[in-house]
Automatic annotation (TrEMBL):
Domain FAD-dependent urate hydroxylase HpyO/Asp monooxygenase CreE-like FAD/NAD(P)-binding: 10-187
Xref: InterPro entries: HpyO/CreE_NAD-binding, L-asp_N-monooxygenase_NS-form
Any one Pfam family match given in the protein's UniProt record, by short name: NAD_binding_9
Protein name per its UniProtKB record: FAD/NAD(P)-binding protein
Ranges annotated as spanning the membrane: none
Origin: domain of life: Bacteria
């Protein structure tokens, strides 16, 4: 009797998320696999690292996570139906490779870094690439009998729905035939929006240079002229990468000073960067210490019970009005838990007494403010989320020089605070923010969040606040920023940066709310990732699926008007990652995972022992795919 043909799965995107699902398929196969399974991994970049973490990028670019905070393996904190398969975090992997107990390929130019790396350093992306490459090889080597993997180093350009599905690859004469398709969606490139198109057109007409938002490592900045002023809009991680590529990447060097800090020695090939943003300050430096108090109890005030109770109330649920007070209280709980248990000499109440009173008080209430004033005598020890979010609000300097001095002092204070374990309460707030982020998918799944509030306040404002506070650069990057400012190669435009196309002068002009005056330049760079909306996706495959109606953009019904508001995300069923069609029905054999789906997982690596949403989503998706193998 002829053997049944294998079930085939096409995975479009073979970066960390695609390989993470493959690992979960491997782990769950002994329980759920029926027959044989062939997995086609489709990606023009190496499986494991994928596009973002590929080895072939500048050695200057680093992770913004410490190696002890990065893992690709489940542990016993992860609540999944499938088996737990633990493995080394990045720093454990480094140590095992270093002492010879684990065999892995590490490129020669990365080896010195591996030999010297500590758990609190910030690795290069090339070292992370080696870790992810090893992870992929390990997953492949440990596949159970009956599972085969086929690699395709190519772009997927078209998917034809049917039995089987047909996935067409660039330059291929025949499609990949599959019984199911999984899209693992990472960074999404976008077509310019209306304003970007206007600026690009203005630049073309006047012989200027305009660089729209994009992933920094993939943009060619070689034409940015040396010695000329350049306007840069955006002060987050994309700016940090850009800053390094246009300075040290052009031959300059940083010198460690015996008195502390850095001095920059220019090569002469650098432009002069004038940077600003809405906040006008860089993202907070990553924290360089560990908690000193008792283990945090998270989530506490923004848990499943709180979300369920919130959504039982009549009327629409608005993020800033209804959800944010719970989130703010959760962040404050993490902060004050660490302050009270890690630094009891700086508080006036017993923690148990404070915790009871804290639980009974609403976040933004006189009762809460009075409690904190009574319990925490030091102003510098009180959490002010408004000041954290907009540190320059209402402040205006008389001159650019005065503002530059203020901003330097702000960055120096941030560096000092984030390196001093006396302020470890900040880490408590950070851990609470991570917990909050993991709860948001559950909130969205209730369907009760007001549409405009979800898109503009949760996906917009709150995501920006999270990134600014919790996803900043390594401290050294801010030290380099100060050195480049001292060298005259970086200056600050300030908060509420405005860019104007000056047709009369034929230049770009920038101003801000922090000081009077304007800066002009012939080059403007948007230092940020593009808004990752499916409606503007430039990827050939996503665009075709969107235009054909086969890929549906998530939309939320406005509870007041009944209108539907697009979120920009791929519409998926949160419980199992199945893609939804135009009327909201699940497509039985199309799946999508990633930060730009309805599940809203963080676009970051998992910290060990945090029950990460991405692991839970990967496991649920893998189990659904494996169940399909028994339904043919």
């Amino acid at each position: 009797m002829a053997e049944d043909p294998p079930f085939t799965l096409a995975v479009v995107g073979a970066g960390p998320r695609g390989v993470g699902v493959l690992e979960r398929i491997s782990a769950n196969a002994p329980e759920l696999l029926s027959g044989r399974l062939v997995v086609h991994l489709i990606d023009p970049f190496p499986p494991g690292p994928g596009r973002v973490w590929r080895y072939e990028q500048s050695p200057l670019l680093r992770m913004n996570s410490m190696p002890e905070d990065v893992t690709v393996f489940t542990d016993d904190s992860v609540r999944v139906d499938g088996p737990i398969r633990p493995g080394p975090s990045l720093i454990e992997w480094v140590r095992q490779v270093r002492d010879g107990t684990l065999d892995a390929h590490v490129p020669a130019d990365v080896r010195p870094e591996l030999e010297a790396l500590s758990g609190t350093d910030f690795p290069t992306r090339r070292l992370q690439s080696a870790y992810l490459d090893w992870f992929y090889r390990k997953v492949r080597a440990e596949l159970p009998d009956g599972i085969e993997v086929v690699e395709h180093r190519a772009h997927a350009v078209r998917v034809e729905d049917g039995i089987p599905q047909r996935v067409w690859l660039a330059g291929a004469d025949e499609p990949v035939r599959a019984d199911a398709v999984l899209f693992t969606v990472g960074h999404i490139d976008a077509e310019p929006d209306e304003r970007e198109s206007e600026l690009a057109g203005f630049a073309t007409r006047h012989g200027l240079a305009y660089y729209p938002a994009g992933y920094t490592a993939d943009v060619d900045y070689s034409a940015v002229p040396a010695g000329e002023p350049v306007l840069v809009r955006g002060f987050g991680l994309a700016f940090v990468d850009l800053m390094l590529l246009l300075t040290e990447g052009r031959g300059g060097r940083f010198e460690e000073l015996t008195c502390g800090g850095l001095r920059y020695h220019p090569s002469g090939a650098e432009p002069r960067l004038h940077v600003g943003s809405r906040r006008g300050v860089p993202y907070h430096a990553k924290i360089g210490y560990r908690l000193r108090g008792k283990p945090l109890r998270l989530p506490r005030f923004f848990d499943d019970y709180a979300i369920r109770k919130l959504c039982e109330t009549p009327g629409p649920v608005r993020f800033r009005e209804d959800v944010w007070p719970l989130i703010a209280k959760e962040i404050a709980w993490g902060y004050y838990s660490e302050l009270f248990t890690g630094h009891p000499e700086r508080v006036r109440l017993d923690f148990a007494v404070f915790a009871d009173a804290f639980a009974d008080a609403s976040w933004d209430s006189e009762t809460m403010r009075a409690l904190i004033a009574r319990a925490v005598p030091g102003e510098q020890d009180r959490l002010d989320l408004s000041a954290l979010d907009r540190p320059l609000a209402g402040r205006r300097s008389g001159t650019a020089e005065e503002f530059a001095k203020e901003l330097r002092e702000y960055v120096e204070a941030d560096l000092s605070r984030r390196a001093d374990a006396e302020f470890s309460a900040d880490l408590g707030a950070f851990m609470a923010l991570l917990s909050v982020y993991g709860q948001l998918a559950g909130l969205v799944a209730t369907g009760r969040l007001d549409a405009e509030s979800q898109v503009s306040e949760m996906d917009g404002w709150f995501h920006g606040f999270f990134s600014y506070f919790a996803s900043g650069p390594p401290p050294r990057r801010l030290e380099e920023l100060l050195a480049l400012h001292e060298a005259g190669l970086v200056s600050f435009v300030g908060a509420e940066m405005r860019v104007r196309a000056d047709a009369e002068a034929g230049v770009f002009t920038a101003s801000g709310a922090s000081f009077p005056g304007e800066v002009t330049a012939r080059t403007l760079i948007e230092a940020r990732l593009p808004d990752a909306g499916i409606g503007r996706a430039s990827d050939v495959l996503l665009r075709r699926l969107r235009d054909s109606g086969e890929l549906t953009e998530e939309s939320i019904v406005d509870s007041t008007t009944g209108d539907r508001l697009a979120s920009g995300r791929i519409h998926t069923r949160v419980s199992d990652a199945r893609m939804l069609d135009a009327v909201g029905d699940p497509r039985p054999r199309w799946f999508a995972v990633g930060p730009h789906t309805s599940a809203r997982s963080a676009a970051a690596f998992t910290r060990p022992r945090t029950n990460a949403a991405s692991f839970r989503q990967n496991d649920a998706t893998a189990r659904e795919i494996l169940r399909l193998t028994g339904e043919r």
